[in-house]
Design goal:
The chain has helices spanning 11-31, 46-60, 67-79, 91-101, 112-135, 141-160, 164-177, 198-210, 215-226, 233-248, 250-261, 264-274, 288-340, 346-364, 372-386, 406-428, 435-460, 471-497, 499-533. With 534 residues, the chain is mostly helical. Among the domains are: 1-28 and 163-286, no CATH class; 288-497, no CATH class. The protein starts with 10 loop residues before the first helix and ends with a helix.
Length: 534
């Protein structure tokens, strides 16, 4: 009887080694010190711009890894004309200056040749936009603008941040899940997905669930995979339409949830071998104990990191609620009080301002970190992924289905209505809340509940061992579910409209950055004039 060499990697283990070797080569190229001339940015209004960007990012309430991309996109929306054809010139330099002043980029770090590359991106995609608008009447201009900004923004961002880690991890993860997930089995009734698009849909779901990519990132990644080019506009339009359809499907959302539920081992592998915070030397896949030791150490590090992330998320959520509530109070609540009662009703105003932040802070105290048993389970799972262990590979966990249960739907509807009714009747109206104040209370309590729930998901993303739900947790979920549901609807609707962010863009960002640009240009003009006098 022969024993199996536990150092023998699986095909996925070999793929991990190849991916990390490729990353290491890219790192070596990126390390080469260039003698190219770089752009130096004057220190003019940097502190003010940095503070504004922090405020703006809180108001948008997006993932941290998308903040830099968001700043680039806002610059393009503000600087490029999509209403009439006006050739954009020299925007790359203005973009780098703005990003440097806001401390997204280090000063004297951007080669001048990179400015030319970005200007080429802008010109190329701008010309394609106008070609689509003029020759493809079935595509609305705002849709063509979104396509253009998606690709242009991501390509610009990637000129500063090499995407090799992200794309390598996406390919690695696709290789793993493509053998375990049959897209056909999860197609939602009434939705049509051609078999030829199964792989694309799975790739989109991987990006959304495990990389937390937005549509711009996924669109750009698929552009590269399928070789989409501005030279073939017909193919480009066809692909963008198909991507928009696949990305919006309930099937895609369903598969994304399944992948996320089974994603803890992949997230640990990403943090261990694909993280941009770590220098890659290639995975020593032939040394099983070394690889698994790295994995175990990374899990411990991730446990500590998620605690910091959740604390930061709580603070960010509280600031977001305070800013939003203050603006709603000024725009809606106070004017309503003055119009109806002739005076400002202080008590409900203060409750609506203070209670939601306190609620989310209290909720954070109930969060529990994953256990050591969970750590061991992840290490064992990853071992079975990367090495020939002789044991069966772990199966994916799927959501149990209750079918089309009218009983459960009825109970849920009664619970939904009952919780809101009792809270309004027995508490708010006894505290003399009027209808507007009550609606605002429910809106912000629901938003706080959803934000708190979303923070718990960051902990659950590292879990592979299911926890036993106690009676108290069951009651808590029973009471919170309606507020989480409403909060989710509000947050997603807010994310689409984002009135607060739009107000900041119009009232503060546009005037502030326009004035700073004029001051910088005036300073440059004066300096040039002084040089002419020498």
């Amino acid at each position: 009887m022969t024993t199996m060499d536990t150092n023998t990697p699986t095909s996925l283990g070999v793929l991990l080694k190849d991916a990390t070797d490729n990353i290491a080569l890219h790192d070596q190229v990126d390390k080469v010190v260039s003698s190219e001339q770089t752009l130096h940015v004057q220190d003019m209004g940097n502190g003010l711009l940095f503070v504004y960007e922090q405020l703006r990012n809180v108001s948008e309430n997006i993932e941290n890894h998308l903040i830099f991309q968001s700043a680039i996109r806002r610059f393009f929306k503000r600087s490029i004309s999509f209403g009439f054809n006006k050739e954009p010139k020299g925007l790359a330099q203005e973009l780098v200056i703005e990003l440097t002043q806001a401390e997204y980029l280090k000063n004297d770090s951007t080669p001048l040749t990179k400015l030319s590359t970005i200007d080429d991106y802008i010109r190329e995609h701008y010309e394609t936009y106008w070609h689509i608008v003029k020759h493809y009447k079935s595509v609305r201009p705002e849709i063509a603008q979104k396509w253009t900004l998606d690709i242009l923004t991501v390509k610009t961002e990637q000129s500063f941040n090499n995407p090799v880690r992200l794309l390598s991890f996406a390919a690695f993860t696709y290789s793993y899940f493509s053998e375990l997930v049959n897209v056909h089995d999860f197609i939602v009734e009434g939705e049509k997905v051609h078999e030829a698009d199964y792989s694309t849909l799975l790739y989109i779901a991987i990006h959304k669930s495990l990389l937390k990519s937005n549509d711009a990132n996924v669109r750009s990644a698929l552009f590269g995979l399928y070789g989409i080019s501005n030279d073939d506009v017909e193919h480009l339009v066809e692909f963008n339409k198909k991507f928009d359809y696949l990305s919006s499907l309930k099937t895609t959302a369903k598969i994304s949830r399944i992948l996320s539920r089974n994603g803890a081992p992949l997230r640990i592998l990403r943090a261990t071998f694909f993280s941009k915070n770590k220098e890659s030397h290639g995975a020593r896949i032939e040394n099983r104990s070394h690889i698994l030791g790295q994995v175990e150490a990374q899990i411990t590090e991730e446990y500590g990191q998620v605690q910091k992330t959740v604390r930061a998320g709580v603070i960010k959520s509280i600031i977001f609620l305070l800013i939003t509530k203050a603006l709603i109070g000024l725009i809606v609540e106070i004017p309503y009080d003055l119009a109806v009662t002739g005076a400002i009703v202080i008590f409900p105003l203060v409750i609506n301002l203070i209670f939601p932040p306190l609620f989310i802070a209290f909720t954070a105290l109930t969060f529990r970190m994953p256990s050591n048993a969970n750590k061991k389970a992840i290490v064992d799972y990853i071992e079975s992924m990367l090495y020939q262990t002789g044991h069966d590979k772990p199966a994916l966990k799927f959501f149990a289905s209750t079918g089309r249960s009218y009983f459960f739907n009825t109970v849920y509807a009664i619970m939904f209505i009952g919780v809101f009714y009792l809270l309004a009747k027995e508490l708010l109206f006894n505290l003399h809340f009027n209808i507007v104040q009550a609606l605002i209370f429910f809106a912000f309590l629901s938003t706080a509940s959803f934000l708190g729930y979303r923070l718990t998901l960051q902990i659950k993303e590292l879990e592979i061992v299911s926890r036993n739900q106690g009676f108290i947790a069951l009651i808590r979920d029973f009471l919170y579910a309606p507020f989480i549901f409403v909060g989710r609807k509000i947050s997603y609707r807010f994310a689409r409209m984002n009135i607060i962010a739009q107000l900041l863009d119009i009232v503060i960002e546009l005037p502030l950055k326009t004035v700073l640009r004029m001051m910088r240009q005036w300073s440059t003009f004066l300096n040039n004039k002084k040089d002419e006098l020498l």
